[in-house]
Amino acid sequence: MRGISYRVFMVMVYWQAVVPPIGLILNLFVFLVFVQKKRRRQLVSVVLMGLAVSDSVTLCTIIDKAMNYHAGFTPSKISSAGCQLSHYIPQMSRDCSTYFILLFTIERFISVRFPLKRATLCTKLRMLIAMATVVVASAAMEGFTFWFHDVHHISTWTGPKPYCMLRVLHDHAEYSMWVIYTYGVVRLVIHDVIGFILPCAIIALLNALLIRSLRQWSSKRAQLSQQTEKEKEKTEADQKSLTIMLVTVSTFSIVSMLPFIVSQLVYVYYRPVSYLFVLNQITRNVGNVLLVLNYSCNFFFYVLGGRQFRNEFVAVITCGKGKITCGKCKITYGKCKITCGKGKITCGKVKIRNGN
């Protein structure tokens, strides 16, 4: 079992070296799409921009750990502040990511279950205030990491080397064990329970209710009374597609973070070197692999689940000069639009239909 644990660990090490830089690029694409003027008007886009930023911060801290393993150097070893920040920033950004997912899940729940109240309950100002509250609360909650961590110079066969670790005293075993146990309990309550388990339980409950509502989706979903039936159907389909995409994102986030949290819970209460310890290490390494995937792959969910996102992504990478929609064969270049299905070509104010 130790051999399996080592192989899983090596997969995690190289995975953390390769995937995070790719995830940073994909999160940058997500941010550039949602920061567009048309997108900024949508309430969900504001939260998804915040999610892309918090995920990117977490990926940067993972790159820091990869540098430490592969190059033997990392900014976290330079000073005590660097050591403390290397633990503080990832935990804070993970809390922000989880609660940002909770925010857009609540927004989707209100939009689906209480559509007439959405305009008054879910405003852009309230969402910005909620996001700011999440950031401030996460920063305050994870402040305990500053007290528990520091740089220690440990003697090795090549000389003293700096290590970022808990504030333990090597000549006081009882005090060191107290520090380790206290840190585990505090981290369990603040970071794992309040920062993950509680919001994820609410997300799971709301997602279950959303899935139930999606099955009973009504044709009267559109709220604007002056729209035509065709426009109502399009609005309803867009809202349904957006809800399905966001439910998928939030569900995948919960599933991918679950193994890591389980290993954290076991580690607090069981540390002896045994088969259970080794099994927990395997679970932890698998959890780290899934964590990296969680913070890197939201781009693919947006591409698969949103036609509008695909169009705007193509517009971003082509500097706004071209759009391509494969499903209905719509091609837009500058002021010219070609719709294959209806035989319509529009260039500026000139319209040609059915070849006439």
3D shape: globular
Report the biggest beta sheet as strand number plus sense, adding barrel if it closes: 5 strands, antiparallel
The percentage of residues in β strands lies in 5-15%
Backbone structural class:
alpha+beta
Number of domains: 2
Radius of gyration: 24 Å
CATH architecture of the largest domain: Up-down Bundle
Strand order of the largest sheet: 3-4-5-6-7
SSE ordering: HHHHHHHEEHHHHHEEEEE
Low-confidence stretches: 219-227, 322-327, 352-356
Helical content stands at over 70%
What does this structure look like?
The structure is a single chain. This protein has 356 residues and is an alpha+beta fold. It has 2 domains: 2-320, Up-down Bundle (Rhopdopsin 7-helix transmembrane proteins), CATH 1.20.1070; 321-356. It is 71% helix and 10% strand. It has helices at 2-34, 37-40, 43-71, 80-113, 118-121, 124-141, 145-148, 173-215, 229-269, 275-296, 298-305, 307-317; strands at residues 149-156, 159-166, 322-325, 330-333, 336-339, 344-347, 350-353. The strands form 2 sheets. Strands 3-4-5-6-7 form a 5-stranded antiparallel sheet. The chain has a two-stranded antiparallel sheet with strand order 1-2. Helix 3 (43-71) packs parallel to helix 6 (124-141).
